[in-house]
Write a structure and sequence with these properties.
Blueprint lengths: L4 E5 L3 H12 L3 E5 L11 E4 L1 H9 L3 H4 L8 E6 L5 E6 L1 H8 L4 E4 H13 L4 E4 L9 H8 L5 E4 L17 E14 L12 E6 L2 E8 L4 E9 L13 H11 L5 H9 L4 E8 L10 E3 L2 H4 L8 H18 L2 H30 L3 H12 L3 H6 L2 H4 L9
Helix pairs in contact: 1-5, 1-10, 2-10, 10-11
InterPro entries: FAD-bd, FAD-dep_Monooxygenase_BioMet, FAD/NAD-bd_sf
Keywords: FAD, Flavoprotein, Monooxygenase, Oxidoreductase
Protein name: Salicylate hydroxylase
Length: 391
């Protein structure tokens, strides 16, 4: 293999997974991260079988298996009546069908497990507190103290590495905002079941709830339309802003559910940004992965898993072909895959936020759809085998 070294910019889920994946094929890696210490913002993550299989191959899954929860199902329910509308079985059924588990956990738990594997790997060096405002390949090599055969931009939605890719996309506000709540498990109402992921739906809004076994809490994320706050990430809202959100976006929802959100401690308000369509490589030796390439909305719960797939597919292509061909093949394969998953997310948003006659038609279709049929429609997502795509 001619490609022997890489510089990865960014030490989030995408960057750490990329470093481990590339080290697995015999490369020497330096990760450059601007934060002085590894502290992950955010709350819960859903990791489906297509991501869990990669984590297992990298030795990460055993580190989180005792901390995450494997839900029995993902269920769609009415935010107004709390009645179940449709359900996809997971648990043992999912493992048998898709070849890997489906788990939910706090983002920090996954990042710490990835970090431990990185720190234990002698082929990987991690440089924290290293900020490069105007990146160039020469500047990255000088900072890392090494020549690199491959450069990987894993620096998120506000990526600076995108400036090195002609025709790259740009961060753009999606028109949606996410309100995130993490409440102690004992404070959550009993109808938020502890053995499943529940997506409560309503006109123009939905809320996803699931337990975080690793922190003894319930993760709740409510998503609706909202205003563009500019270049922002996580915002601590006022009580007045919280009340306005609940009364506007969740009007007509179950009273106890709304009161739970009004009483929850320290919510955060996250504007949801995507990345416009554009190139992901410089056609030579630099690639973008994860949110830097294709930040996507959470309607398919695949954002983190797409980054994990990116990393493992990239390593497989670098292992089997010349670097120039590998980056071109990476972009072609991953662009098609991400576009299809994004389209599924758009469909979910339409279904979750439906109102009026469309909502009634949706409920009727769900009522006639057995769980196994709904599961079969997800085979192409959860059954994907990263690292095994044809050359």
């Amino acid at each position: 293999m001619a490609v022997q070294s890489a510089i990865v910019v960014g030490a989030g889920v995408a960057g750490l997974t990329a470093a481990l994946s590339l080290a697995e094929i015999g490369m020497r890696i330096t990760i450059i991260e601007q934060s002085a210490q590894m502290s992950e913002v955010g709350a819960g993550l859903q990791i489906s079988a297509n991501g869990a299989r990669v984590l297992d191959r990298l030795g990460v899954l055993p580190l989180i298996s005792s901390q995450w929860l494997q839900p029995d199902c993902v269920t769609l329910a009415s935010g107004a009546t709390l009645a179940d509308l449709a359900s996809v079985p997971l648990g043992r059924f999912g493992v048998a069908r898709w070849g890997g588990p489906y788990g939910v956990l706090h983002r920090a738990t996954l990042q710490q497990a990835l970090l431990k594997k990185v720190e234990d790997n002698p082929s990987i060096s991690l440089m924290l507190g290293t900020r490069i405002d105007k990146p160039s390949k020469e500047a990255l090599e000088a900072e890392a103290g090494m020549k690199a055969d491959l450069f990987v931009g894993a620096d998120g939605v506000w990526s600076k590495m995108r400036t090195l890719v002609e025709g790259a996309g740009q961060a753009k506000f999606s028109g949606f905002v996410a309100w995130r709540f993490v409440i102690p498990e004992q404070d959550a109402p009993a109808f938020i079941l502890r053995n499943r992921v529940t997506a409560f739906t309503g006109p123009d809004a939905h809320m996803v709830c699931y337990p975080l076994k690793d922190v003894g809490a319930i993760n709740l994320v409510a998503i609706s339309s909202g205003e563009d706050p500019g270049h922002a990430w996580s915002i601590s809202p006022t009580d007045e802003q919280r009340r306005e959100f609940v009364s506007r976006a969740l009007a007509g929802w179950n009273h106890t559910l709304c009161e739970t959100l009004l009483a929850a401690p320290k919510p955060t308000w996250w504007p949801l940004f995507g990345v416009s369509d554009g190139h992901w490589t410089d056609n030579s030796d630099l690639v973008l992965i994860g949110d830097a390439a294709h930040a996507m909305l959470p309607f398919a719960a695949q954002g983190a898993v797409m980054a994990i797939e990116d990393a493992y597919d990239l390593a497989a292509m670098v292992r089997t072909m010349p670097i120039g061909a590998a980056v071109l093949r990476y972009e072609a394969v991953r662009r098609a895959r991400v576009a299809k998953v994004r389209a599924r997310g758009d469909f979910n948003r339409f279904a979750y936020h439906a109102r009026g006659p469309i909502r009634l038609a949706r409920d009727a279709v769900f009522a006639l759809s057995p769980p196994t049929r709904l599961a079969a429609k997800l085979d192409w997502i959860y059954g994907y085998k990263a690292g095994e795509q044809p050359a």
